[in-house]
Design a protein that fits this description.
4 domains; Multidrug efflux transporter AcrB transmembrane fold; alpha+beta; Alpha-Beta Plaits
Length: 600
């Protein structure tokens, strides 16, 4: 096959063009861009709410009963529960050899069969844990009250969802709306009512009722009684009972109705102002960079339309991480390409350097072709794989090109030199690539959440190496067969003369110093072997003794500073808010000290 491709340069060029076209198609159409890789976790969550219960009561009456009900199911590796005030959360890790969705169905059946939960407990929610990573957050900060700030944030969210490139946007840092109904005991006694009677009257009145349909010649007409109450005035007009004098007792006559927010206190600020956040997520094939750019464009367009006292901006732009990694990759590729071209031009020939360099984009395009088949996206982990393999991707092409150039001096033609030079190193180069593949392959079989992250690297590195092997064996020889020795040319340029002197000098240095050393190393095999074993032992000793530090995940300086405050359970919200304001004041002092507003 090597000889056939070397003789048929059209086939070699077609192979090259095909890889380029398919790679560009996959990159532009089939490969999404995201910040972190998305993957399903093998963890199932069971959440149950028990309003007003203490953590001890929640543990005894809910958490322990769930654990006892599911502990003998097959496929469960570990069970962990967390009981807090008013809620229970049980997390179940599924063994890797079992289907998490099948185990989910079994757990749901067991949990639904539990009939000893407290009467006030809400229905259990059993779900497969999913991990969503936001791309960017939009901040709405204002000098107005919580209600006005949330209403404007809802408008911003709805506007963002109308943008074609944005699919999922959620409000955060805000409290949910709530209509509270408080009825004094004396009112119940005055009108001879009970809480259950009032509750039944509200449930019967505040509901949408289907009344069937009417069949007409023009079609069927669906009948629906719209009675669901959502606001204070709608609840106020609900009839509770008809009194003996014929008058109707309304809910507003006996109850204090408040249309506000949940009682759980939440205070969100941005730059010292009341704020709400809209978190934007990347969904499906969407690009994190395109989503973030669409959000930024919307914010820029709305600056002239926002009300006075409202500040619209963005926060926590994770797409910038991807942009920086892509920039690192392109910069490294450019620098690596320049080094390859420069060094090979000095040691061998500029034409060899050029065709060796072409192997880098061809190999990367091959990886782009393979990525959709393995469900790999462009993210910070896969881009790290590209950066990692960038330094070794052209090794086989360099060896092949150099050997072809060596055979050119003795072969009868460039075609024979290309065939013989490639075939001679085909076996060692192939096994050299395969040993590198074998070194990265175990990363694809690491279990757990970290394994899903590490698997991104070998799925990138291995296709790049294999396609580089294909390119160096089938494409490169057909291009290098046109090489000619300089002695066959009538005239040599000044650069050619300089390059020839440099290459000859380097070759003489190898023959004078390296060749004798290599002969001695071969002659004294035992001494050479134990010498390298001694070096290995020294390295292992440095690591095991702690002289060379080992950190699994190094701590990297972040662009965001976070502070958390934990107070004893039951601490008043005002006390927490007071401490948070004090922390904010200190942060403002640091910003004024270290940041110049004019230069940012």
């Amino acid at each position: 096959m090597i000889a056939w491709f070397a003789k048929n340069h059209v086939a070699a060029n077609l192979l090259l063009i095909t890889i380029l076209i398919l790679g560009l198609f996959s990159l532009s159409v089939r490969i999404p861009v995201e910040v972190f890789p998305s993957f399903e976790t093998d963890r199932i969550n069971v959440n149950v709410s028990l309003p007003g219960a203490t953590p001890e009561d929640v543990e005894k009456s809910i958490s322990i009963r769930i654990e006892e009900a599911i502990q003998d199911l097959e496929g469960i590796e570990r069970i962990a529960s967390s009981s807090s005030e008013g809620s229970s959360s049980v997390s179940i890790e599924v063994e890797s050899s079992y289907d998490a969705r099948e185990v989910l169905a079994d757990i749901k059946s067991r949990v639904d069969a539990i009939n000893t939960f407290p009467a006030d407990a809400e229905k259990p929610v059993v779900s497969l844990a999913t991990r969503k990573r936001e791309v960017i957050s939009v901040t709405v900060a204002s000098v107005y009250a919580e209600k006005e700030t949330r209403e404007f944030a809802e408008k911003v969210r709805d506007d963002l969802l109308r943008i074609p490139s944005i699919t999922q946007a959620e409000l955060s840092g805000v409290r949910n709306y709530e209509v509270s109904i408080e009825i004094p005991q004396d009112k119940l006694q005055q009108y001879d009512l009970t809480i259950s009677q009032v509750s039944a009257a509200i449930n019967n009145s505040s509901t949408d009722v289907s009344a069937g349909n009417l069949r007409t010649q023009g079609g069927d007409i669906l009948l629906l009684s719209k009675g669901q109450a959502y606001r204070k005035n709608e609840f106020s007009d609900i009839a509770i009972k008809t009194q003996t004098d014929g008058s109707i007792l309304l809910l507003s006559d006996i109850a204090l109705i408040t249309d506000a927010f949940e009682e759980t206190p939440v205070r969100t600020r941005f730059n010292g102002k009341q704020a709400a956040f809209i978190d934007i997520y990347r969904i499906g094939p969407q690009s994190a960079i395109e989503v973030a750019d669409a959000v930024k464009n919307y914010i820029d367009e709305q600056q002239g339309n926002i009300p006075v006292g409202v500040e619209l901006s963005y926060w926590d732009d994770d797409s910038q991480v991807v942009k920086n990694r892509i920039s690192t990759l392109t910069t490294s590729a450019l620098q690596g390409g320049i080094l390859v071209l420069a060094l090979l031009s000095l040691f061998l020939r500029p034409s060899i350097a050029f065709w060796v360099f072409i192997g880098i984009p061809i190999s990367f395009m091959g990886a782009f072709i393979a990525m959709p088949f393995f469900g790999i996206t462009l993210n910070i982990m896969s881009l790290f794989g590209f950066i990692l393999v960038l330094g070794i991707v052209v090794d086989d092409a360099i060896v092949t090109g150099e050997n072809i150039y060596t055979h050119l001096k003795t072969a009868g033609s460039g075609e024979q030199a290309a065939i013989r030079g490639t075939q001679e190193v085909a076996t060692p180069v192939t096994f050299g690539v395969l040993t590198t593949v074998a070194a990265f392959l175990p990363l694809a079989f690491i279990e757990g959440a970290r394994g899903a992250l590490f698997a991104q690297i070998p799925v990138i590195v291995i296709p790049v190496l294999l396609f580089s092997l294909i390119e160096s064996k089938f494409v490169l020889p057909s291009h290098l067969k046109h090489l000619k020795l300089r002695s066959q040319k009538e005239k040599t340029s000044k650069f050619g003369q300089l390059q020839q002197r440099f290459a000859d000098g380097f070759e003489k240095t190898i023959l004078r110093y390296y060749q004798p050393l290599l002969k001695k190393a071969i002659s004294f095999k035992t001494a050479t072997f134990f010498g390298f074993v001694g070096v290995l032992l020294i390295i292992v000793t440095l690591i095991m003794s702690g002289w060379t530090k080992f950190i699994f995940f190094p701590r990297i300086t972040s662009e965001t500073v976070r502070a958390s405050l934990t107070l004893p359970a039951g601490s008043p919200f005002e006390v927490t808010n007071k401490h948070i304001l004090k922390m904010t004041e200190k942060a403002e002092e640091l910003r004024a000290k270290y940041i110049d507003e004019e230069t940012n």
